[in-house]
Amino acid sequence: MKQSFTSRETSSRGQALAILAVLLFCIPLVASGLKRATFDGRPTAVRDAETATNPEYDLVVAWHGGRLGDPRIADVRRKLLGEVAADGLLRGGSPYVADVTSADDQLAALTASDMTVEQAKESLSGIWLGRGGLKIKATNNGRRDLEWTARRIETELNAVEGRTVVVSLRPMTTPVSGDTDSPIEIPEFDLEVFCAAGNDPLATPATLRDEVLKVRGYPTAAEPDGQQLVAEAFEAVGTPVAIRIRLTDAGKAVPAAARDAIRHAAADAGIASEDLMVSGSLLTAAERAETLSAAASPGAGGGLWNGVLSPIVITLAAAGVLGMLVGGYSIDLICSMVLGAFGAAGLAAGMNALGIAWTESLLLIPAVVFVLTVATTLLEPAAGGSLSARVRRPMSASTLLSALCLVTLLVGSNMQRTTDRQFALAGAAACAIAWGLSTICVPPVASLLGGRPIRRVTHGLDFAEWIVTHQRITATVAATVGVALAVLLLQPDVQNWVSAPRGESSRGSQFALERSLGGTSDIRAEIHFDAERMQRMRILERAGIVRATVQKLKSCHGVTGAMSLAEAAPDIPRPADDARTRERSTYIARSNKVAEHLRDRNEVLGGAWLLEHGSEDGSEAVGETWVIRASLAELAVDAPQVVVADLNRAIQDVLRFHAGVSHEITGDVVKASLRSATPSRRPGVIGVLVALSLIVAAVGTGSLGRGLAVAGIVAIPGVAVLIAPGFQPGQFGAPAFLAIAIPLSLGVMSCVRLVNDLGEWVAATSTRHEALAFAFTGSMTRSRQALVTLAAVLGGLSLLTPQLVPSAVRAGVWVSVWAMAASQCIFPLLLSGRLGRLIVRDGERGLDTVDDHVVAAPIRLEPVIEAPHFELETTRRRVRSAG
């Protein structure tokens, strides 16, 4: 028996009330769960590593104008460590600081041996002693107005595209020759020039010195080419100097509090806050966690209305409003946005309840829930809701879209990594929640509100009439738009923006430290000598091998400095085999003396620079390990595996001539290289995206030929972001793959719906022109809403929350632009021409249709308002009961 209208209405209303009751019950739970969020700012490689690094020092502190012998260093040390009062008790100090070591301490330790000051300066350079910028000694004309001279040099040097030049005056606290009795003097200078290139913010052009010397002032009679402003340009080691700090357990737990304590101590010592630079891996992770918290949580000044809304919430709300402005509003669209936001909040609360710390990639998951819920609702309104689906497909659009995104996510994730596994599971939950909300919850809730969508059938009819009557022009326009957009999106500037170049990190204390002092990432290289090599080689020979290795490491890209205990040993060549006995005896005696001296020096330095390995009974040495410590500029590291390969190659160039000598490198960059060295998921993701797009298009349209047309126009060009080398696709991970899959899937599904609508209208209307016009105006509005909403979400995240995996978000923006252009412009225009006749043939129309040539003039379509159908008996009963 056919179900009556009253029973259907009652069933839908009951489902809606049950869903609303469950949602209302969950609101307090969700609100409580959102307050338990924790954030993890550690790098991905560190989170994936099984063991954490234990650097010798936790923080690096420096300030502009700092120098050796600076009295403020002693003041900072005293305020951080405290001092013993007259009663013998320690007064003052910070509970977060365990030890403070300055560059003066290291210089004194090195010069206490046979090492000269020049050798010590070279050894400490890039680790404890900075080079600063390119130093300029101005002429008398330039010194008349140093500020004007600095602006003039900045203007001239910034004329070159792709770099940023900053010229600063010499700090008054920086001494020059004759101003101090420091063992390391700095030649007199007036200005410092810092240059940051777009692709490498720490690289200084080789021609910078010559360019500075060519800068001229106003022309005069004596100097018609302009007054000479620069007398000399040079580099010098000695300012700033480093203070390295070890933190207590309390300081390691809250590095931000330790940073504040250091800032207070520096301010009390007379150091300006804008001159102070503090950095370290623990502090960087804590600051990163703070930025993630600011992106997800409302706070003072963190968002709209003085922090009432977080940037992510603002982005989702603005994207929803923009989507409604583009295609009009409807009850089911509003319900999908509200329920999508609730689903995103519910998933976030659930992750907080499980104790999962939010990372830069996991913060994308709530946006995925919102976007997929809205998109699946717009692509295929469910029957019984506020909209009725006109096209019946073998599988629903929501299922196909969610499945395509889910499979791409699983293929692009490496389940052996902790971060990828967490993101894959969270992404799978997001796809499932979005599918459930759009399929189960949105239709009954929308029907309960009793609103039908505002159907603007005449929207865009004039444009549709024009394109269907000018097929050659539209085909030319489609080809032109496709080529122009491809050329635009493949520009180097666009590729650099998508790949999030390192130049955008040119800010903050870490950049200032690495630019003026040295690297902030520690590298530890161990050189192992076995027992046989120890017997054949004297310690002077072994020290020479280590010393040569240090020099090789200093030449590697990104390494700002390297040092070892071997540099304290004198460079004494080994006598020839036929040398006199006296020469050999003298060499052996000096070698033994140097060995004792190095062991004593090693004990003074903590015993961590030279390690001897004894036998089980301790009677003899069976091995020896020399430790080399180097500093690496993190902002100069593009591909960690390339950096580690360069380091290994440099060490092997020295050790390959000596049997029984091996090496080992450790550090955060090594962990990052191991993570990058795992097999790339990119080829599999490309194949999955193309294959699934073809399958979905073929299944959705019911024809392999139609599927090939859709996939060839939308999906295959869209994966160019994973193929073109300029995008640095090797850096893309699971978040980027998901951000690319969603817009591609939406573009494919919108084209599938357009083809199906065209087939329906070709069979139902009298002419092909009418079918094209109805198909364009009927299906493109809602798919356009979905794509615009997605692009707005990704664009808003890239602007308001740049810390959330910028490469993934920007790759999603790139693909969204292409998917929108391909599905809303290129494919519809091509569909109105010969392509449309090939994939939707005229023979599919009804027998009573008329050929296209009968209609020569443009048509005007009138809106058709569907009237609800009621059973006659039900209507009569309602009339009698009302009367």
From TrEMBL:
It comes from the Bacteria. Keywords: Membrane, Transmembrane, Transmembrane helix. The chain crosses the membrane at residues 304-326, 333-357, 363-383, 395-412, 424-446, 684-702, 708-727, 734-755, 786-805, 811-831. This is MMPL family protein. It comes from Caulifigura coniformis.
